[in-house]
Amino acid sequence: MKSSSPRGFLAFAGPFELFSRRRILCVLWRGALLAFLCCPVLLRGGIAGSVDQSFVINFAGTVSGIASQPDGDLIMVGKFTAVNGLAPAKIARFNPDGTLHAPFTPPAMYSWEEPCFAAIQLDGKILAGVRGATPPYITRFLQDGRVDNFPPGYTQAVANPLTGALIQPDGKILVGGSNYTEPRSIGLVRFLPNGTLESTATFSIGEGPRADIGDGIISCIALQADGKIIVGGRFSRFSGQPHFGIVRLNPNGSLDPSFVARTEWGQEVACVVVQPDGKILIGGPFFTLNGQPARGIARLNPDGSTESLATFNPGTGTEGVTGIALQADGRILLSGYFLEINGQPRNRIARLLPDGNVEGTATFDAGTGADGNVTTGITLQANGKILLTGDFTSIDGQPRNQIARLNNDPASEVLTVPDNTRIKWLRGGSAPEISQTTFEVSTDGGATWSSPGTPSRIAGGWELTGLNLPDTISVRARGRFPGGDGGHSFSILEQCVDVPPLSASEAWRRQYFGTAANTGDAADLSDPDFDGNPNLAEFATGSNPFSTTPSPGLPAKNSGNLEFTWTRVKASISEANCVVEWSDSLSGTWNASSAASTTILTDDGTTQVLKTTIPAGSNGKRFARLRVTRL
Predict the structure, then answer these.
(1) Cα–Cα distance, 165 to 150 (Å, whole number)
(2) Are 335 and 297 in contact (CB under 8 A)?
(3) Which of 24, 135, 468, 529 has its CA 20 to 30 A from that of 279?
(4) What is the pLDDT of residue 13?
(5) CA distance 264 to 247
(6) What is the DSSP letter of 98?
(7) What's the CA gap between 229 and 272, in Å, rounded?
């Protein structure tokens, strides 16, 4: 347990643990390498696709959608009533390691039937779609879980089941679903950023998707760089015209007649991803594409024609692909209910090479795969690790209920400011392939940001030129990427660089408070979680300033001394002075550790565990505290 303490002090007793968020990060300024951090890959024999032993979450119920925030936190929605035995229901926020994030306290969602997707806006607000309700609707949450002012529902504009959302660069929100004959609905609508339904004068798909038998369903949506919209699903007509399984819309919702792709009657395109070169990956229960045999997975040219087998050849393909995730190196992750690809056993998880061939188990091996369908999601985290959700209880024979994380090859992100005229963001390896990239700059330590322009794609990343940047500046790069079943959920990742680089405490403030300035809630002596430990102490011990700080440990008696074990973040050593003090009473005089000895027990390069030996006193009892002051 931990007791409260005066400002500037940390008093503690009991066990604790710390965790460090790291991934590959290169920081350059005018060609000079300033920093390089690497996230090691856990290897079951070193193979990408193996189960990540450090990530375990147990849901009571189903997970329907997952999205990643710019800070790496995960938003998960579904018809679950508990997480790891705790109470969060229907929507929950997790730290990148899978632990529950605090504070995140949404209201009771007992009236929801099932949240089915999550999407993150650039301002950090969280959209969640709800199916099963009458009518279905969207709710928007703030970062702490409170419901935001967002017009709920859209009557019969889209019918159940809702299938997903896509946020455009201008903040408008596309939402897809079914198209029932009665009551009338159209299957795809677009909302303005404030949540009001866009007028049909500026966006209309006419009658939308229709099927000769059953309901027309929009299963997936993807956005091209030119603003055109790829729509996949199960339909035989669209806007009154014969179209099977896939269409392309102009930005105003009208059909693009230059797009020639089609499946056949009764077949479905369940997932779609647009590659950086404009080619289009599609997956689903289809067997024919553009009049030729194509089983379950294919790649289209930008005009909708099927790419030549000479450059993309998945062989005999597969059945039951419901999710596609694209890596920055061009490799293609698949999930669904398939059991083989091109005749090679692959239980519901697989990776293709950029040319469509199934990757061998020497470099990607999920073992025996999933024991149930992986049909509600596959998505990548910023560090390349692979998140799976579905109706399974184990992966490769290891217990994992509804969700699992797989290891992957290294991911790289290199955000550089080569000179005052350019910003460049190079991405590679297993990092998620992104779109809708934005660059922003700040001259006040991240308190405010402004856009210097729109970056353009270059080989391996993005670049913005023709700038006139000041010598001292912060730069932020952000990109969006889809995830979940059919890409229904929408994530954002970001990377920041400071020139010259921030100090460790400034970087810590930026991570948690969005600003590097020593003011307001981010100030050294501020205590935003009211746990009695000011920010400076939280920084020095590697703690989260928004959750109750765990205790570093209990003093242990050893002969005539007390041995006091505590933790220090190495990056804080140059900025914060940590001193163990003791007293025979809380109201008495506190003695510094000049009469004590301190030794380093462990040092992993980021965090040190230390032991300070202090006199036990005549009665063998003493109070101890860690005093943290700025150097």
Answers:
(1) 15
(2) no
(3) 24
(4) 33
(5) 13
(6) S
(7) 11
Strands 473-483 and 435-442: antiparallel
What 3-state DSSP class applies to 405?
Answer: strand
Residues 6+ apart with CB under 8 A from 143: 104, 124, 125, 126
CA distances to 4, 34, 536, 548, 631 from 527, rounded to whole Å, are 11, 32, 9, 10, 20
How distant, in Å, are the alpha carbons of 373, 390, 400, 485 from that of 337? Answer: 5, 10, 17, 12
- Asked if 322 and 337 count as a contact pair (C-beta separation under 8 A), the reply is yes
Which residues lie below 8 Å from residue 501, measured CB to CB, with a gap of 6+?
A: 27, 34, 35
Look up residue 136 and give its DSSP letter. -
Residues whose CB falls within 8 Å of the CB of residue 490, separated by 6 or more in sequence, listed in order: 67, 117, 118, 119, 120, 165, 166, 167, 480, 481, 482, 483
Helix or strand holding residue 513 (H, E): helix 504-513
Q: 3-class DSSP state for residue 512?
A: helix
Tokens describing residue 9: 């002090």
Q: Which residue spans within 188-345 are E strands per DSSP?
A: 188-191, 209-210, 216-223, 229-234, 237-238, 241-242, 246-249, 271-274, 280-283, 288-289, 292-293, 297-300, 321-326, 332-336, 340-341, 344-345
Task: Quote the DSSP letter at residue 538.
Answer: H
**CA atoms of 345 and 370, how far apart (whole Å):** 12
Token pair recorded at residue 288: 């024919």
- CA-nearest of 435, 378, 437, 484 to 164 is 484
E-assigned strand segments in 411-488: 411-419, 422-429, 435-442, 456-458, 461-464, 473-483
Q: Residue 336 gets which letter from DSSP?
A: E
Which pLDDT score, from 0 to 100, does residue 179 have?
A: 59
One-letter amino acid identity for 78? G
CA-nearest of 232, 214, 230, 295 to 268 is 232
Q: What is the pLDDT of residue 37?
A: 37
CA angle 321, 112, 183 (to 5 degrees): 75
**Per the structure block, which two tokens stand in for 508?**
């810590």
Give the DSSP H or E segment for 558.
strand 556-558
Number of Cβ atoms within 10 Å of the Cβ of 1? 9
Instruction: Give the global pTM.
Output: 0.76
Q: Quick count: other Cβ atoms within 10 Å of Cβ 365?
A: 20
Q: Distance between the two ends of the chain, CA-based, in angstroms? A: 29
Please identify which residue in the block is written with the tokens 């890596």.
327
Residues 40-47: contacts with CB within 8 Å, 24+ apart? 41/407, 41/408, 41/409, 41/410, 42/407, 43/407, 44/407, 47/361, 47/362, 47/363, 47/364, 47/365, 47/407
C-alpha dihedral, 521 to 73 to 227 to 216, nearest 10°: -130
Residue ranges in the chain whose pLDDT is less than 50:
1-45, 110, 153-157, 180-184
10 Å Cβ neighbour count for 601? 11
In 3D, which of 387, 436, 71 has the Cα closest to residue 226? 436
For residue 96, which of 121, 78, 69 has the smallest C-alpha distance? 69
* Burial classification of residue 433, based on how many CB atoms lie within 10 Å of its CB (0-12 exposed, 13-18 middle, 19 or more buried): buried
